[in-house]
Amino acid sequence: YGAFGTIELVNGLVNAATLKCRFLYQDEHPMLIIYDGSISELQFNSMVTRIDLVYDLNDKKKSIVRCETQSYGALIKHKISRVELGTKEFTLSKQIGDVIAFCKDYQDDYPAYSKMYHNCRKFMTLLSVFIGIENSDNWVAEDLGYAAMAVSQCDPPSAYHLTKHALKKK
pTM of the entire structure? Predict the structure, then answer.
């Protein structure tokens, strides 16, 4: 598994009365940050837990669900790429233990990383549904694109155009 151990020890999310979350995007890679709901505004030193799906750098076909606790400032201060904060703040409907269990189950069920079907966006879409939030920031038509590829046996760019065309007809 990814770094699950730090989530309870550093962040104290287990005892938080409410949990809030926001999406972060690093070069369009979606991440979810969870933090204590009593924090009124994220500060550079606010402790957050980042959850995302990545592939193992030593084996790009192996998926890793990361649950790492660190300061918000450390997370957004990347010299290589820019990290953008999503537009909405959400209140979680689940306890942090439920979120950890979901992440572990996902990694057990989908150990192989696939750019097409078991990727960071698909994981984040399923996690969003599980915790009861609607992600309107990004990749809204992700599942339609997957369906277009599966049904038509087409390549990703063609699936993108099919999805775009289907959404125009609504």
Answer: 0.78
